[in-house]
Structure formats: structure tokens, C-alpha cells
Amino acid sequence: MDGQQTVGEDVDVLNQVREMIEREGGLSAWAKIVVGVSGGPDSLCLLHVMERLGADYGWSLHVAHMNHCLRGGEADDDMVSVALAAMQRGLPCTIEVVDVGGVAQRRRLSVEEAARQVRYGFLLDTARRIGAAVVAVGHNADDQSETVLMHFLRGTGLAGLRGMLSNTDLASLHTVSERGLTTALGPPIRLVRPLLHVTRAEIEQYCQAHGLAPRVDRSNLDTALLRNRLRHELLPLLETYNPNIRELLRRTAAVAAADYDLIAAVRQTAWSQVVQTQDTQAVVFRRSDWCKLPLALQRSTLREATYQLRPHLRDVDFVHLEQAVDVAVRGPTGAQATLPGGLCLTVGYQTLRLAGKEVHAPRPDWPLLWSDEPLPVTLPGQTRLPDSGWRLEIRWWNGPKEVALHNADCWSAYFDADRLGTSLALRSRQPGDRFQPLGINGQTKVADWMINAKIPRRWRAHIPLLIHHPPVDTGREQIAWIVGWRIDARVRVTSDTQRIVHCVFREADETSR
Amino acid sequence: MDGQQTVGEDVDVLNQVREMIEREGGLSAWAKIVVGVSGGPDSLCLLHVMERLGADYGWSLHVAHMNHCLRGGEADDDMVSVALAAMQRGLPCTIEVVDVGGVAQRRRLSVEEAARQVRYGFLLDTARRIGAAVVAVGHNADDQSETVLMHFLRGTGLAGLRGMLSNTDLASLHTVSERGLTTALGPPIRLVRPLLHVTRAEIEQYCQAHGLAPRVDRSNLDTALLRNRLRHELLPLLETYNPNIRELLRRTAAVAAADYDLIAAVRQTAWSQVVQTQDTQAVVFRRSDWCKLPLALQRSTLREATYQLRPHLRDVDFVHLEQAVDVAVRGPTGAQATLPGGLCLTVGYQTLRLAGKEVHAPRPDWPLLWSDEPLPVTLPGQTRLPDSGWRLEIRWWNGPKEVALHNADCWSAYFDADRLGTSLALRSRQPGDRFQPLGINGQTKVADWMINAKIPRRWRAHIPLLIHHPPVDTGREQIAWIVGWRIDARVRVTSDTQRIVHCVFREADETSR
Fold first, then answer.
1. How many CB atoms lie within 10 A of CB A459?
2. Which residues of A touch B245 (CB under 8 A)?
3. Could A226 and B241 be called an inter-chain contact, meaning their C-beta atoms sit closer than 8 Å?
4. In this complex, which of A254, A255, A263 lies closest to B262 when CB atoms are compared?
5. B241–A259: do the CB atoms touch at under 8 Å?
6. CB atoms < 10 A from the CB of B402, how many?
7. What is the value of ipTM here, to two decimals?
């Protein structure tokens, strides 16, 4: 080491890191550890601390540095200084030169995001290649405060308020391997942040005390524009409100992390109770079970399903989630909500289905007509819908009339038999179809009504319509029921009704009630 | 009403409030409702909206106004204007004049806090007196954003991030009744905030559209200095980071409220599993069960216990909670942590006890000596500790030596019999006592060591010391064991040990293992 005497601050940093390691784990004795070193103060301090602690823990360290090719000669000087630092310490070192600007262009990412993804990908590859199970990086306590604040201002809820984790799965961060090594396969690699409780000021003092000469990264890639504004403008102002704001943001992160973990554990238990099927294409919830979950778990299961289908998505913000929950709880059958990553939530009769918009949705789980031919139905009698798991049952209703005054279930409808007549059929809509929806004064076009009812466009042509020839208005075919949605006001059961017909759609495996 | 034509904005406010009532409940049809009216824009808008909706819902409204006696003539003018507004509408009205400054002095509260408490107390009393179950107040969406931000800057975790609730128990707010009516008894009164989703700008437009002439409260009592700074300085700056920050803060509140509710439900289940006893004086947890809870529930149960003992406490901040959790999990027997409201958490051998500092703590549940007389003990043999539920068992150890190399339990210790000798006693510490703690080089004073070990002062004189007369160092009494804490290095079991003595303290109802 550099032979300088240690000072007060130094012992503090060392002990803080040691205490954190003892408390939070992740760096076991005799571990092989990749240390990400940019050459700045954080990573130089990290390397120095890891080397000193490594003597006690028996670690073998491996330095990793990525040249982003973004700052020309300056970046090259960084690279040389890191290589020299490793050499002086007798540590193995991997350096990779990546044209991050090119990656950003090819993958249509911001330069900051591309740099981040490529860097983590490089660290992951390096760890796999040398057989290390852990990667250490130099994020500090001030980075953490800034991250928490940034997430708060973006609105990412508890998940975001956790800030950066001190010990996490590296592959869970979105990484892009430029070497072609697949990042998804191979043993899991932990990412640890040993300096996450050490402030920037303490790190600078440590560097001074140990004669470390950090490079200054002028472009400050890690700390893009927003972060710099937070650091130099917003945090100083917030300190006039609460002088301990930085510390408090870190505590907020710690508290949020524990709350998040608890909710995640509860969600895991609930998951199996509400998920009907899941694969890489879609997650399907049983709608009635899902709707019984507490609101927090409704949000949490939707968020989790989103991450399972789009593992590389970062921070689903809660505006999207809230809208999706609202549609799922209150939306009519067929309603849809958009989620990030090109995902779409579709409300089925008994299901909620989350899948990519590009994934061809299976036929919905409610009765549809796939033929243009009218399908005659008999009264009383049963009629199977072709290409569908459903049948229509029609029978005389002898139960109490009160029951027949309201249609509790969208697949069940009661009609005044004398107004309905006996010449019935199912068919899909035709141009010019009109009806008189119950609850609305006057006639309306079926086409307009379907749009207003938010029936998805591609299913509008397949919604069954119950057609009748009213005895009172001879000859003219009329629409008695847009199945699943609304009956016609003229055939409803009233206090004057003498005889009642009950129509109900049932799934094939459902017996009559 | 005032006969003016409604405009666009107006319909919006009315519908927003109607929708909120339908969705969140709290204002049932035919309810008797106290409306808190200061005379400012929020409460005038509230009164107007409540009157219009009341026609549909069949509400009977009662206006309540408190004159804080803080602004002299201005406050009197407010009072008159509210009384007139009620009279014009034909609504009953209660007005109370309270010297808030005096209350603040008597109760040693800030004027803002005193005003808040007295005002809610007045609303509660009024509701009880006229037989209303609901009180409505005029907090708006901007108040909510400011509250969430204020709590975030104070660090109150999820509980605080919920902001103000749209429907809550009025008695749960700290209220002071100046009339002498007890606020703790009587039926629960709900506090609702119908304008919580309506912005300040919408309220002002509504007032204009309806020709309402709000009074301007210059002192802005509700919106003390901090709130004004947030409103005029911080929020405008945050809007340059995220133009939707106000809306986002409200969404944060909604998300936090659901997460909080879920954790509260999980906590409720856990509560009965970890609480041993509870009354108005103390909550006692079973320590081992409590320690197995996830961190979030450890925090949540401590917070809940704090509120149960101090129902009027607002927002326990998480710095206190974190320290208390840390002491509870890692602290030695006897360790203490301070919580707000003069509460103190004490770590027992098998319990965690939360109680007021003024409550006399019962004798701790571990072996203590209450007499100054030495207590001879026999080897092998059993000795009961007087005035204690504990006994000391001493026997020859014939089990494997490996077991005897470490003391797994603080109440059990193994000794080298040949170094210990057979002349043993228990006594409390005496001035000048020294020993050589295992794991530390050299001798130390028992008094100093007890301080360093954080043994609570009042119990230090009662900790039993196992005394022996080492055969190898004839005559001189030495300390073999500070019971519960540390043995002396000189009597420990080593690879050379021939015969082993095992000493163990057991509670009276515990049988030998």
C-alpha cells in the first residue's frame, strides 16, 4: 500500500464498509471479486478499501475498467491510470474499449442509458469469464440520496424509493453484452455497493489521506444532466428545509426497501392464488379472484406480471399501473389498458390477460359468432355456438317475476314472451342495424352504440345479436339483445308481462342452474 | 342559491366531488353533516357544493366556524361573513370564539398546532352535540400535494406519504376540547375532505363562477410558514423537474395509502402472534417471536405500539423507529431505546417492553441479586436465588469437550474445574473488583467493563458475579463469571482442560435439560 499514515476519517470509512459487509452480507471470505474502477474518487477509494479489507477476508480482486470512447484522449488517460493502479497493486485487470456512442445509435438508447447497460454487461461478462460470483462498484451515499430523490420526482412508488440496493442480482439490471456472451445464462452474479453508506465528502477525505489521485471525469457520464441539477440546485435548497435531507433520503430508501420486501412476500403468496396461466408470452389472472385482492396487491401483481414479461424494463411508473388497475376493476368485458414495454391488459369475462400488443390475442373467453350466417334458435331449447365453448339455453321462466325485472348477469336476459315472439335467431350485426337500448330514450344505430360501449373494434362484428320478429309489429325483424351488453327496451319484462322467457349463455362445461 | 349560470369549470368541480363521494364513501344519503367554514375560498366552495349535492342526497348541513381570536377585527369580520352566509342559505350555524393564543401558552404548543387541535376539537364537539356523524372540511388537492411533500421532507415513511385521508376518524386527530366535553368518548365521527381531488385553481374558478366572495385570511393560519415556502418556492422549482409534480405527489399519496393499508392488515395478523400483554401502560412483545418478523413488521408493530400507548401522537418519524428496532434486535439484555411521547423500549431476556419512562419498570426477567450478602453455592448442586424466579445449577460436564469450548447461551457457562476450584459463591460487585474478560487482553475494572457493556446503571449492582478461590493462586478471591455477560479468560475450557464444570441459570418453571 501507499505507506501513508491513516487518519481519523480513514478508519471510519474502513469500519463503515466492514460493518456494512458484516451486516448485509454479499462478500464472503475467500471470494473472487471484480471491482469496477473508472478511475474517479469513488472507485479508487473502493479499490483501496477492498484491498485492505481483502487482506482480512482473503479476497482475490480483479480490476475491470471500461473505456466508453466518448471523451477521446481523456478517456484513454483514465484507462492508462487504472491499468497502472492495478499493476502497482499486482492485481489482474481487464480493460474493454466500447464505442458506446455507436451502441446508443444502434439500440436507439440515450448515451447515458447505453453506457449504463454496456458497462454492467461488461462487468457481468468479466465476472463470468474469470469465475467471480461478485462485482463491486463504487456508488456512494450521496449517489443514493440523489437516486431516491430522482425516483420520488418521477413517481415510482416504493420500488423506486428503495434507491440503489447494496446487494442485488447483476443480471436484473438491463445489461447489453457487446462480446456476444449471453447475459441471461450462467450462474447468478451479485452486484454489491460497499460504499453505499459512505458520503462523497468522506470518500474525498479518504483519497487525500491515502494519497490517491483520482481522475476527474468531465463528462460525468454517470451523473447526467438531471443528476447534476439535483446535486447542485435542488439538494442545497432542500437542505434549507431539512439540514439532514441527504441522510433522510437514505433512511427513506432503507424503510421503503423493507416495506417493499414485505409487500413482495405477500404478493408471492397471492400470486399463485390469482394466476391462471403464465408463460413468456402472457400472464392470465382469474379476474374474480384478482378483483378481491387489496388494492396494493392488485397494483403489485400487475407490476410483477409486467416485469415477468419484460424483465429488462426499469421502474414501471404508477400512472400506468393505476390506469390498468382501474380498467381491470371497473372496465367492461373487452376493455384494454396499455402498460409499458408494449404490453396490453385485456379484460375478459373471467380473466385478465396481460400480453404484448404484437402477440395475437386468443379468441376471447366470451360467446362470439364467427360465421355470417344467422343461427336459428329454438324456444325452449339449447343451441351450441359453432367454434365456441358456449351454448344458448332458452326456457320459460316460472320463477318470481321480481328476479326477471333485472338482468344480474350479462350472459342472462329475461324477456316479455308475448312481445318477443317465437321466431328467434342469433346473428352478427349488419349495416343499418338499429335498436332501442334499455335505459336510453329512442333508437340508436347498433354500430354507434358499440363504439360508445367501448366494445373492441375487432370483436364488434362477432358479438351475437338475438333477433326476433315481434308479433305486435308483424314481419319486421328486430334486435332483442346485444348479447353481453344490453337488451332492447321494447321486449323487457314489465309489471304487465304475462309470460317470461329466460335466455342464458353457458360455457360448455357449465351445467344449468 | 345565487341564481348565476353555471360554467364549464363548475360542472367539473361538482362532478369530481360527486364521483369521489360515490367511490370513497363516507357521505351517505340523508346524513347530517357539519361543514367547517372559515370563510376562505376552499370552505365557501365546499359549502356551496355540499348544498347543491345535498339536494340530491337529502343531506342536512350545519355550518361551524371557529374564531381563533388571533387577528382581531379581521377575524371578527370573517365570523360575521360566515354567519351571514349560513343565514342566507337558511342553514343552522355554530360559531365558537376561542383564545387560541392562550391555549397555545397553557399547553405549550405552537400557535399553529394549538389552532389545529382546538379547531378539530370544536368540530368534533359540534358534531356530537347536534348528532351528526360526519364533519366535512375544505382541504384541496394542492393542500394534499404540499402535505405529501412536507412529510417526505420530514421523513415519515409510508404513513406520512399518504398525506391527508379523504375519509378518516376525526377523534384520531389530536383534538383539544375547550368546552370540557370529552373528545375520547361518544360515537365515532368521520372527517371527510370532499375537495381533496379539486385543485386550488378550480376552486377559485368555481368561486368566481358562482359569485362567492371569499375572505382572505392574511395570517394564513392553516398554512404556516413552512407550507407557504413550499407553495411559493419549492413546488415551482420542482415543477421545472417534473411539470406534473403536484398531480404526482397526490398519486404518491394514493399509492402509499394502499401499501400502508396492506402492511397494516398484515401487521394486524402478526400482532396477536408477538404481543404477550398489553394495557394502557405498556405493550410487551415476546422477543424471540418479534425478532423473527420481517423488518417492515418489526418497525410497524413498534410504531403501532407507540400509537396505542400515545394515541394523540402524530407521525412517529422513522429515525426513532430504526434506532429502536436496532436496539431490540441487537441490543444486550437491559438495553433501552427512546421513542417519542416519553416512551422507552427495554430489552428483556425474553421480552421487549414499551412503556412510559415514568412507569416504574418491573424487575427485569433475568437473574439478579437483591442482597449484598454473598450466596454460597455448591458443586455439584442447585442454589435458588432469593427474590427471583431463578436457580443456579452446577454439575460436572461429561459431554463432548467441543460443546464446552463455547458458551452458546448467556445463562450457561463451562469452566476448567481445576482452575475454578470448589469454593464458589455468588455476590454482587464490590468497589475495586477486577477481572480478565474472555477475548480481551489484560485485566479491567468490573465497573468500567459494565459501563462499556451498556448494562443499565440501576441493575449493575445486582448482576450476579460467580466468585471462586483458584487453587493455583491460593487464597485470593477472583471473579469467574459476570453472569449473563462474560467469563474470565483464566478459567475458560482449553485443549488442556481435564475436568469441566457446567454452570447454568434456569427459571423456576424450567426443568433441567
1. 17
2. 153
3. yes
4. A263
5. no
6. 8
7. 0.71
